Amino acid sequence: SNDGLNETTESLHARKLPSDPLMEATFGNATRMIENDNVSEGLETLQSILEQSGDVFLIANPRFDGSLKAEVLTELNKHREDYEQLYGTTAQQLLDEALKSADEDLLREVVRRFRLTPAGAKAVTALAMTLQDRGDLGGAGRLLSAQAEFLTGADQATCVAQAVIAFQHDGQAELALHLVERYSSVLTEHEE
Question: Is the pTM of this model over 0.70?
Fold first, then answer.
């Protein structure tokens, strides 16, 4: 039967993907804390995952498929106000330091660790401008399109429009079109 072969091939492929059962367990513990109204501790635990430099694929948990950090950001976004109260000041201090010293690595750190805070959103914009100035329009487009997922209203429309322009100038018309189609309602609603 061909099904057995496909199952074996898929399981072999899954074993080759970078995974970390301990990080997955940490994520599960954090979401349970939040579900049990221990929101601050759950958010702190999720933040500890963002503090890690690498990312892993979720394999053990059938509810999720893909990047652990993407799932962490999705979960944090559900509790954004509490998250901003916990980490907004730290994020702003790091952003101020990064901008004052023109430290691109520190700017990247603010994006990686705190992208869901207002300072993190400003860091995304500043880093995208840095990438554009260096000629990495595709990198700027990817950064902005990833950020758009966590924005709403006019901020989302502006971020998407900037990503579309970056992709167009980088010769990636298909990515630009995909973003326009995905966010057509917000772009139409906030046309200027």
Answer: yes
